[in-house]
Amino acid sequence: GISGWLRQEYRELELLNEVTRLLYHRKTSTSVGGVIRKQVIYTYRQWMRDDFVPNSMPKHIKWSKEQP
After folding, report:
1. Ramachandran region of residue 2, left (φ > 0), alpha (ψ -120 to 50) or beta?
2. CA 42 to the chain's CA centroid
3. CA dist., res. 15 & res. 11, Å (int)
């Protein structure tokens, strides 16, 4: 498998892709955003829930309580 840091990188890129898609279609809260990617991901996860995994997330990098 891939290393933990690389898996995290792919997860964050997929989350940013989802945020961009939602922003483009104007389907997010105005609280979602930020200057740096950490801020964007943090505000998105606060809005959606920390344990939410977008449907677009590839199965190899999905997370759950059993597979963080």
Report:
1. beta
2. 9
3. 6
Alpha helices in 1-68 (DSSP H): 4-24, 37-48
The pTM assigned to this predicted structure is 0.85
Residue 16 has, within 13 A of its CA and on its CB side, a CA count of 13
**CA torsion sign, 39 to 44 to 47 to 49?**
negative
Q: pLDDT of 2-60, one tens digit each?
A: 899 999 999 999 999 999 999 999 999 999 999 999 999 999 999 998 888 999 899 88
Residues counted in the chain: 68
